Amino acid sequence: MSAQSFYANVPQHLVAVDCIIFGFENGRLKLLIMQRKVDPMQGDWSLMGGFLQKDESVDDAAARVLKQTTGLENIYMEQLNCYGDVGRDTGARVISMAYYALIRITEQEHVPSPAYSAHWLELHQIPNLIFDHRQMIADALKKLRDNAHFHPIGFELLPEKFTLSQLRSLYEEIFQHELDKRNFRKKILSMNILEKLEEKDKTTSKKGAHLYRFDKQKYEELKTRGLVFEI
User: If we measure between CA atoms, which residue out of 14, 36, 24, 34 comes closest to residue 170?
Assistant: First the structure.
């Protein structure tokens, strides 16, 4: 007897994946959203998403959606939550697995993909969204803040080379409050996980500000010795 026969009398549901894609540009945390191409609610604003195919896991489906919409692979992505309220999708009974991803906008030439009516918007610019996508964003922001507090995932949003001012601005955006400039500098440098470069960023002054690079290998080594990352 086939597996399908075993469950012939069991209700069938659709499974979707939705991706909350964050980026950081010009000192602002941004979100990638698109105008929905199909009914129901065609033309309304939506997260990037799609349906699970028969031959893929939910993780593979999320990676596929991410690649289709951004052209990117092997970036930071984490499963967020399962959304299964009965009436959440007006088209059918759809259960969605949500993921959030972090992208370095400034290092990508074609994000989002030209094939999608997608835009990077600052958090305060996000319009009304379909279904429960606004709740997904709120949950993703909370998860991002919780993780960024004790893990160096913020570096996934920055260019490879950055100033301490850019780093502080990022965390101010994530936590949505101002950080003391002197204390932040002292704390982040005391962890000894940044490599100071000879290069300088001179876009804001003639003197310029030193550029730094996150040393992931050194961080992993120090973590085994008891280093606790905390912002």
Answer: 24
DSSP string, 131-156: TTHHHHHHHHHHHHHHHHHHSGGGGG
What homologous superfamily is domain 3-144 in, according to CATH?
Answer: Nucleoside Triphosphate Pyrophosphohydrolase (3.90.79.10)
Query: In the chain, what are the domain boundaries?
Result: 3-144, 158-224
Radius of gyration of the chain (CA): 20
Give the residue, 171 or 12, on which the prediction is more confident.
171
113, with CB counted inside 10 A (0-12, 13-18, 19+), is middle
Phi, psi of 156 (to 5 degrees): -70, -15
Q: In this model, does residue 77 exceed pLDDT 80? A: yes
Amino acid 106: pLDDT: 78
Fold of 158-224: Arc Repressor Mutant, subunit A (1.10.10)
Token pair for 161: 């080379």
**Digit-coded pLDDT (tens) for 2-11:** 556 788 888 8
pTM for this model (two decimals): 0.92
Per-residue model confidence as pLDDT tens digits over 14-39 = 999 999 999 999 999 999 999 998 89
Residues shown for the chain: 231
Determine the angle formed by the axes of helices 133-150 and 164-175, rounding to 10 degrees: 130
Checking DSSP bridges between strand 48-51 and strand 45-46, what pairing results, if any?
Answer: unpaired
